[in-house]
Specification:
The chain is α+β, with helices and mostly antiparallel strands and about 270 residues long. The protein is about 20% helix and about 35% strand. It has 4 helices and 15 strands. It has a 5-stranded antiparallel sheet. Strands 8-7-6-9-10 form a 5-stranded antiparallel sheet. About 20% of the residues are buried. The mean pLDDT is about 90.
Amino acid sequence: IAEERLANLEPGQIIEAKVVLVRDDAVFVDIGGKSDYTIPLTELSTTPVTSAREVVNSGDVIKVMVTRSGDEEKILLSKRRAEEEQVWPDLKEAFDNQRLVSGLVTGVIKGGLNVTVNGVRAFMPASHATLGQSRNLEPLVGENFDLKILELDPDKRRILVSRKSILEEERQKIEAEFFENIKEGERRKGKVSRITNFGAFVDLGSGIEGLIHISELSWNRVKHAGELLKEGDEVEVLVTKVDSANKRLSLSLKQIEEHPWYQAAKSFSEGEVY
C-alpha cells in the first residue's frame, strides 16, 4: 500500500513527512517508504539559514512539496516550496485588499532590489524604493519594510512591490502637521541641503526644505550662496513666509542678526564729524 501511495505522488503535491535525522547541511525524512529521503539545506527554508538545526528538530512532522515523482528512488522533496505554496493565498488576499505586507531586502540587482515577502521572492524597482532618485540602494539591504504589492501573478511566481507609495503617505502626514504648526517670525534650526545660484535650501527636519534667497543671506553684498554656506552646515534661520497651500517656506539668515543701521544709530550722532 505504501509503495502504491508513493507511486501515485504528483509534482506539486504537498504531503507530511517525519524528520528522522538532522545534520547541518540536510535533514532526512520518512514519508512511509522503504528509505528515508534527503532534503538539502537550500530546500529547507524560505529565509537564509546556515544550518538545518535552525529550522527543524528530529521527530518534527513537517509539510513538504513533491518536486519530482516516479519510482521511490527518484522522489525529491522541498520544505521551502511547500511553505511558498501556502503563502500565495495570503499574498493574494493582501493584494486584493490593498493590505500592506512586510518584506526583507536581500540584495541589489539590476534595476532594483530583491525582497523576501513572507518567504517568497519579490522585486522592488529602484524607482519604488525611495522618494528621491538615489542611485545607492545598498544601505537598504538587510532592512525590513512595510510594502505595497503592485503586481501579483501566482502562475508566473511574480510579485512586484513598492515602498515609495507608503513613504509618500507618511511624508504627506508629516508635511501637513509641520505646516499646521510653523509660524512666520519663528526661529528654526536646520541643515543646508542644497546650494543654488539664487540662494540656499535648508532642511528643517524630515526632508522639509525652506529657501534662503540670496538677498536674505547677509546684510553685506553676496554674489553666490557658496561664499557663506556649504552643504551640511547647521544654521539658525528666521521664517519670513509660510505658503501652506504650495508647501513653500521663505527663510532669512541675515534677519537673525541686528540690522546694521541700528548699530549705526548707536555709534554715530547728528552734527558730529567722522
